[in-house]
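[Solved] Which block belongs to which protein?

Original post:
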Amino acid sequence: MKLCIAEKPSVARDIAKVLGATTPKQGYMEGNGYCVTWTFGHLCTLKEPHDYGPQYKSWNLFLLPIIPNSFGIKLIPNKGVENQFKVIEKLVEECDEVINCGDAGQEGELIQRWVLQKAKCNKPIQRLWISSLTEEAIKEGFASLKPAEDYKNLYLAGNARAIGDWLLGINATRLFTKKFGGNKAVLSIGRVQTPTLAMLVQRQKEIDAFTTEEYWELKTKYRDVIFNAAIDRLKTLERAEKGLEYLKVNPFEIVSFEIKEGKEKNPRLFDLTGLQVEANKKYGYSAENTLNYIQSLYEKKHVTYPRVDTTYLSESLYPKIEGILQKMYPYQDLIAPLLEAPIPKSKAVFDDTKVTDHHAIIPTEIPPSQNLSREEKLIYDLIAKRFIAVFYPECKISNTLVEGKVGTIPFKTSGRQILEPGWRAVYSKELKEDPTDKEKEKEEEQTIPEFIAGETGPHDPMIHQGKTSPPKPYTEATLLRAMETAGKQVEDEELRELLKNNGIGRPSTRANIIETLFKRKYIEKKRKNLIATQTGIQLIDTIEDELLKSPELTGEWESKLRKIEKGEYEANLFKEELIQMVTELTAKVVYGKGKVITLQEEEKEEVKEKKKREPAQKKELQSWEETKCPKCKDHTLMKGKTAVGCSDFKNCGFKISFEIFGKKLSDKQLMDLVVKGKTSKLKGFTAHPEGLAEGILSLTDDFQVQLN
């Protein structure tokens, strides 16, 4: 028997269906020579300090640093986890071969290896590595299973990351809490969390220290075109007025007129960070919410694997592109022009050397269904349009540069026109929402007539008064970009691609890091802006060790973890370096000066605003596979096409239809009925024998449904 272990019950169902393992059992599916079981994400975790010795239960400054001789793992203490692990353990013992069907990434590899390690697996292990959950992708994946050995370095990197985070997080958090927390609260320090907070604090200080200054600029209008003086800004109104007098008595002369035709490159396909940035800019979604929406789209088979950090596709995907485009029915008006000729195979899209574990996020051949949430539809739309846009021609533009002078004062202006929209046609119906974009566009949209060098004429000079503005606070979009490039301001796509290896955190963990900073009250949100709180600022000011708060140095660690993944760096060496750092840090802080950090009080106003502006995040329901049958209490439930019922239905007979008395129930209402025995008050019943239209559904003693 071959045992497949997936990362979630829903993924296990998809795999079991393809393999023909359709008989439901307690905690797994069986059939056709396969057993398919699942984890619920992490079932195991690294042991906690007190697991290595009772003395570590209390936080004692002089017992630091805590450095176990060897790191152990344990089951997460939870009844559901323990029960599922027993199922996996038993199946591992009985099977002939294990197929690791975990998520195809570093975290997925770690989850599975820890579980198999804990289950003392000594059976041969193969690896299923797929980029989408469509039937075709699963079949292809099983046809080309890889030996587990091929992914050993991926596991070593994941394990080194977890150990590194433990060493630094556990020791530095206890160290700073005992030294500076004043016994009031925990001061949380993390390998990625702290340098991220440091970037926010640094920006906050730059904004607070900024002094606004007034300035004046000279402008003039010649032949209905606004020209700007190409000189430094003037610091006093007096100088500006003198300049204006000078301009009034001298004619305007054209010095040069030049039109250059150019091209605007297509946007890149999305990696996870790019998608989170775009969704934050466009819809204000937090990085975590975007990750949840895209994960849901992936599990519904509409898009490919989302936790990726590349914007390229593998060359082997090229033959499938036309088929995917043909199936994207809602976008046929945009796709029709593409299908008139062969799809271009550009190096900017297809490049095996730029593809890591997975390719960029693209739609699958399964078009979106009607039952997506509004947020999921919008995220799918971003991915779909970007996918279409990369195959359109480049946008052709003309840039006009005009230089002039009034006496000895030089002037210039520029204009930009779109000659052929190319890929911009995909976005032609979308409005620009960013006010700075609007201003920029106004300037670019100046229609510039043809000028001749040497022509002169009257003009209309003026003074423009302005104020210098402070640096902009980070938003989630700009913070994600800064994390990706370890704090460097990089606009150029290709340069950013090169810096990704030294970014801080991974695409899949950055959203969680930002959420942790909110939970700890180190940052807060004002509209879209992220602001460091007083606690956050004081914590960063207290940390004297640059290693802990430097994005560049954290980026170097990230680079080493990627090298471990490629087999170019020793995982043990990485661990030794962190042990040395933690030991030195402990000595420095324990014997250094102490002070107490004042903690941020939660501001009620802020919470209200945050609640109003953040899209509500759906609370995840427990899955039916985790829910015991209320009738037989021996088996779990499973969801069919029209009803939820006991997995041992033949013997038990328990079943509840999705539609009751003419009303279709939501998963939440069904779950309440099963778990609590009744729902809240519901309306909209249309087929009750006694004509009741509203009431509470409940289970009778013989497990029938009644409406009261």
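(Second protein starts here: sequence line, then its structure tokens.)
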Amino acid sequence: MKNFLNYLKLRDKLLLMYMLSVFIPIVLTNVVFYNVTTSNIRNQKIRDADMALNNLKNDLRVTIDQGVGLSYSLYTDSIFNKTITRKFTSQKDYVDTFNSYLRGALADENMQGVRWYQVYTDNPTILASGYMDRLTGEIRKSGWYTRSLASSASYPTFIYTDQKFSLIQRLNNYNTGGFEQLVKIDLNIEQIHQIFEGSGFDGQVYLVDPQGRVQFGNVTANLTKDIYFHEISFPGSSRIFDEAYSDINYLKGWTLKGVMDEESVLKEVRKSRSFVIWLACINFVLPTIIIAVMSRSIHVRLVRILRHMKKVKAQNFETIPPEDARDEIGQLTAEFNRMTETINSLINEVYVADIQKKNLELKQQQAQLHALHSQINPHFLFNSLESVRMRSIIKGEKETAKIIQHMAKMFRKSLSWSHNDVTVREELELIESFLTIQQYRFGDKLEYSIVAEPAALGLRIPKMVLLPFVENASIHGIESSPDKGSIVISVTLQADRLIFRFQDNGIGMDSDKLEELHRYLQDGDDIGEHVGMKNAYCRLKLCYREGFAFSMNARYREGTSIEISLPVMEEKPG
């Protein structure tokens, strides 16, 4: 695929580089910066609003719970309930009871959340005094009493009437003697106002009853009687927050609604828009001037070089007027002038003589090539071995023919491998041919075993990297040992690793010799032998780098074991 940049003029490339490297990144950076800043401020404001509304919810509950605690204390006081349901024999009897017990039982507990509370009963023997009052027909017609009838639960009813919050608790926990009695607790509305005003919520907050009516808020100008929250109109950019009292019996259904105008919250961020634009303009102008000056310095001088090169094409060897410049284009100009002068000199003085000299050298090389072709090539040796093998078969020398066949097989493989890597199967076949020849050489003194997992035979490895280790075991191990020699070769797969193990019971080596051999393989110290192992070790290290693992252990007169671990290479098709 052609690179389209190679077809653009330098001026267009510089303009494209400016657009991609300066203009677009600056625009994107400023847009992303502005949007991220706006989003972060919006999210922070939302978190602050949620926290503020939740704090308001908890503070309001603390105030209401003070009244709830008072109502429960009266609701669960058996002595108090039995006293107010008792039929007093006279006014003096009631006054004595009031002074001796009721006055203390109804004493003001000095709770900041409670403004006033009153116990109502229709017991005709009780006089209206202090915190006690008669439950008359007029009171039964009042708004708070009517709304309290909607609930018959044992917990107090939370209502808002006559611009105040109240808790209505019916005192029916014990035998009332047929009388109706309840306690009405008015909460401190000034304290509730302070809670709403000091909530820290950046917007409007409304307290909505279970029916959806707005009963209270920090903005009372737009609150009218029985106005529903969904009827209030808010700006389109407003965000509504909800905090419901869902787990409290006496506040079930009541909800705090917070309304925040996101546009007003982000007003300060909008003001910074002009600053971002001015900053972007500065970021545009300064790089533009710098790039324009530098690009002109490059473009004008390159065009001049190109113009003179076209003159050279027309055999006009005019040099470029020198300039005081040491950058790459200045060096290119100087080299162009030097090249132009050299070409002109070569054409005028040396060209003809050089052509004659080259013709002579070419004829000499052709003569050498013909001499090389006339030499004996490796295929002549291979064919000669095949001829000897066939003659041995004709004469009945089958063992000699077999060995010659293995030698020819090894020679043929060395000629036919056209790639740097082969399969494990091909490498093992080469090793088996070598060991067969060695077994013919040593006779009964050598036995060998090759065991390979079938899954490993198709994997590829660099060619002729295992044979030097087998050759080393045969020549330096088995040949030097007076006992019968054994060479065991195994190939296994472990996870994604290919493991080769070579074990012989030859002469082995002592620890000093083993350490010296290790240094030779790793550091390249020349100790006069094991050249094949060194070559194979270096090739494996070069091919697999950190994936190559090698270990060698030996003991004198007990043998040598070598393990090579390689990462798996995929089998190549065909």
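Accepted answer:
You had them paired correctly. Confirming on the second one: The radius of gyration is 53 Å.
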